[in-house]
Amino acid sequence: MTTIQNETTTLDALNGVATAENACGACGSREMLTLFHGTDRLYRTTEKSFLVVECQRCRLIRLYPKPTPEELATYYPSNYWHNDEGGKITAIEEFYRRLVSLDHVRFLEGAIAGAGGGLVMDVGCGGGLLLRMLRERGYQVLGLDFSLDAASIAWGQNGVPTYCGTLTQAPLRDESVGVLSMFHVLEHLYKPEEYLAVAHRLLKPGGRLLVQVPNAASWQFLMFGENWNGIDVPRHLHNFRLSDLTVLLDRCGFETVRTKHFSLRDNPAGFSISLAPGLDPMARRIRQIVETPAQRLLKNLVHLGLMVVALPYSLVEALCGAGSTVMVEAQKKQ
Q: Which of 160, 201, 236, 332 could pair with 131 as two cysteines, CB 3.0-4.6 Å apart?
């Protein structure tokens, strides 16, 4: 396990002046424990080093210092989470993506049944394959993504109606959504409670909210420390445990219905990327690594092999409530 520094400090000691933006966004405390330093080891968009700290009062883990919005934008490559070749993928790639997304689809279908149907809206939908799979099953769907390129792929390639923008700008009536999902969204936000407040307003009575985040109480975090893929410095501004997420949802007017600690799409892949970020196909594409066809095939096979090896471990940690991701279904408080 990676050694974690035991350094208790305050933001005054690190920054000279403690402002509201510097304090813990959950409880306002200025006291924190420095866990480790980290930089962008996946996409290498910057060589700047950040602290990953834990609030001494509520224990929420966060990035320090928080980059400005303008700075944060530079840490997201232009083709982040979507294919830079117009969204075109091979039949084998699409088969794989559909296969590993099935447990997300099933979890969503359970939420749709609990909500009694209605519009399914996915915030941060990327290329829209997940919503396409739901649309093929007869559900009414709507995507939302901040990236115009991703939204264009979702609509043009996968036939999913998609709005480009933020959730706070979404042109929807109150109580018009049956199920609203946010897969790996909240950890990227300066103020996740703002998105949850909008979700609360948009969901119809009995509607369901689905949230998935990396789990900072996972065995993978304990094993890899600052090398854990779920930290994703500097793009993840917050790192939630299930307890943190439950408190946040409660504060925003939601109560938990179901939780799930396993994701076939995310947990084994996260293990592989934590061990060898240079093998991640998307990171290699984003960094424009020059490879021969043989090198590309070899790296892809090794990455796949690591995921296969990680699958039993990922299943065991999930069964013990310590999976590397956590998915929560919640509803409005009665």
A: 160
Kindly list the distances between the CA atom of residue 146 and the CA atoms of 10, 63, 80, 169, 272, in Å, as whole numbers in the listed order: 34, 22, 11, 11, 28
Q: How many other C-beta atoms lie within 10 A of the C-beta of residue 12?
A: 12
Domain ranges of the chain: 7-73, 91-332
- For residue 185, give both structure tokens: 């969204």
Contact call for residues 158 and 90 (beta carbons, < 8 A): no
Q: Do the strands 203-214 and 162-164 form a parallel or antiparallel pair, or are they unpaired?
A: unpaired
For residue 86, give the DSSP letter. T
Backbone angles phi, psi at 159, to 5 degrees: 65, 30
Question: Across-strand partners of 239?
Answer: 61
Q: pLDDT of 46-93, one tens digit each?
A: 999 999 999 999 999 999 989 999 999 999 987 776 554 544 567 788
What number of residues does the chain have? 334
The answer to whether 230 and 221 are in contact (CB under 8 A) is yes
Q: What is the pTM of this model?
A: 0.90
SS3 253: coil
CB distance 48 to 72 below 8 Å: no
For the domain covering 91-332, report its CATH number: 3.40.50.150
* H or E element at residue 326: strand 325-332
Best CA proximity match to 39, nearest among 235, 193, 185:
235
236, 63 contact by CB (below 8 A): yes
Tokens of 94: 């699409």
Could you list the beta-strand ranges (E) of 184-261: 203-214, 238-239, 254-260
